[in-house]
Write a structure and sequence with these properties.
mainly beta
Length: about 90
């Protein structure tokens, strides 16, 4: 199973975000809230060329979660209350 890519990240203050492209090798989406647990707040953006993907999803009530793997084709990461959230999250 291929990891779903991060189509767009709107959290510009994240270390892994360059021009709305996530360059983390793989992110983890949190356990009690669909937060991007890989978010790292810093003004220094990385110059990596990786395309970010979802490595694990701990949100059991997301319809795209299948045994902690995200089955969405792509995701979008959005800013929410000072942190990053998976904007593709849908309640089961």
């Amino acid at each position: 199973m291929a990891l779903p890519i991060i189509q767009r990240c709107e959290v510009n203050q994240c270390f892994f975000n360059t021009n709305q492209a996530c360059h983390a090798p793989a992110i983890t989406v949190g356990s009690t809230h669909p937060a991007c647990d890989t978010f790292a707040s810093t003004p220094n953006h990385t110059a990596r060329k990786d395309t970010g993907a979802v490595g694990a999803c701990h949100i059991t009530d997301c319809r795209f979660n299948d045994a902690m793997l995200c089955t969405a084709s792509t995701i979008v990461v959005l800013g929410h209350s000072g942190h990053a959230d998976c904007g593709t999250f849908q309640q089961r």
